[in-house]
Amino acid sequence: MWEVGRSGNKGVPKTSRDNLGETTARLVEELTPYRAHFAPNQSSLEGVTNHILRALSESVGLIAILHPRGQVERADGTKIDRASVWVEQEIAIAAFMNQVLQRGIKVRAYTHESIGREGLREQLLLNPKVFSQDQQVLDDLREILPHWAAEISVQAQPRSIAEEMAELASSGRQILVTPALPASKSAFDSYVVVEVNDKTVRLKNTSSNQPVTVPLGRLIEILWRGDDDKPELNVNGRLQWVTLQGEWKFFPDRPEERDAKEFGFGKPTSPSDRVVNEVCRELQSRGYQLARFSPQQLRMRRNHGWEVVYDVDGRYFQYQGPDKRILAAWHG
After folding, report:
1. Which residues of 220-253 are buried (b: 16+ CB within 10 A; e: fewer)?
2. Three-class DSSP category at 44
3. Mean pLDDT over residues 86-108, rounded?
4. pLDDT at residue 74 is higher than 70
5. What 3-state DSSP class applies to 122?
6. d(CA 60, CA 298)
7. Is 87 within 8 Å of 7 (Cβ atoms)?
8. Where are the domains positioned within the chain?
């Protein structure tokens, strides 16, 4: 939607006063694919809330046309012609949307040559167009509206995830990746995007400098936050710590249940399992202590340095029994 705000001439009949605003609204609908909202003059704060604020929140552009509304006397005795206070506030709101909320709303302000410069128009960088005849406004709009419509159309098209990843690769900005298991180990790990092609994205862990490759089709979205916060890459799958190799790898299974989100995916084992015994011997040779804990015990032990042991397939070892004990390791 396109917001059209206009301050009227004091004492001029409504049919004449609103003619330029109505013509401008029709011009917007002729030259752009957007619906125009012609804001009538408001006389109360409730009117601003119900009409102007709601319309601006849904708009991609604001056209503000300021005619002289009445004459006021300043403290120094000089007199100036003043425009509508409500249209001035619309301009201020649009400036807030652009500068603070980063909305990128298009703004075109026209001010009659007889209006004194004061208030926000002296502070905001709106570069208003000064006019003496209404036709000057319409001529200018006929020139700029098609360009604005094209620009808005391009901006409105969402970028693909590959384009966003390419932007991150060129900027070198650090990101987080979720889900990543175990969460206790991934809490402070961040990544940079090293390479993007038509099939995969290669990441680098900033703490270890180790690479991680993720299929491009497995990227769900990037959650962009403030300039000082790291964007978060959400994947359909998970980054999983692999204990013996000491590295992060991508696996296609995404944890959805509570236990899976906390510990990952398990696989059954027993004290006689050859594979788990080989893993235990290797970890012991590296100075690790090993133990088996129930999930409840493990939740408490993790704060004391115990970590779940994950095999090369990204799954932890779970011993069969009533309490489903999980193999864990601690390096003193």
Report:
1. eebeeeeeeebbebebebbbbbbbeeeebbbbee
2. coil
3. 68
4. no
5. helix
6. 53
7. yes
8. 2-156, 161-331
- In sequence order, what are the residues at sequence separation of 6 or more whose Cβ sits closer than 8 angstroms to the Cβ of residue 212? 191, 202, 203, 204, 205, 239, 247, 248, 249, 250
Q: Identify the H or E element spanning 4.
A: strand 2-7
Sign of CA dihedral 250, 256, 262, 268: negative
Calculate the alpha carbon distances from 155 to 60, 93, 158, 176 in Å.
Answer: 11, 21, 8, 26
pTM: 0.55
In what helix (H) or strand (E) does residue 166 lie, and over which residues does it extend?
A: helix 161-171
**Residue 156 identity (one-letter amino acid):** A
Dihedral over alpha carbons 122, 127, 132, 138 (to 10 degrees): -140
Closest by CA position to 162, among listed 190, 191, 198, 212? 198
What SS3 state is found at 89? helix
The neighbour count for residue 293, using CB atoms within 10 Å, is 19
> What percent of the chain has pLDDT above 70?
73
The domain defined by 2-156 folds into Rossmann fold (3.40.50)
Residue whose C-alpha is closest to residue 218's, from 194, 235, 193: 235
Measure Cα distances from 173 to 170, 193, 221, 235 in Å: 8, 8, 16, 18
Query: How many angstroms separate the CA atoms of 123 and 64, rounded?
Result: 16
Q: In whole angstroms, what is the distance from residue 295 CA to residue 318 CA?
A: 10
Which residue has better confidence, 22 or 101? 22
Q: Which helix (H) or strand (E) holds 153?
A: helix 134-156
- CA 224, distance to chain mean position in Å, is 4
> With bands split at pLDDT 50, 70 and 90, how would you rate the model's confidence at 12?
very low
Q: What is the pLDDT of residues 135-166, one digit of tens each?
A: 999 999 999 999 888 887 666 566 789 999 99
Residue 47's pLDDT is 52
The predicted-structure confidence for 279-290, as pLDDT tens digits, reads as follows 999 999 999 999
Contact 20, 134 (CB under 8 A): yes
The crossing angle, in degrees rounded to 10, of helices 134-156 and 19-31 is 40
For the segment 36-62, the average pLDDT, to the nearest whole number, is 64
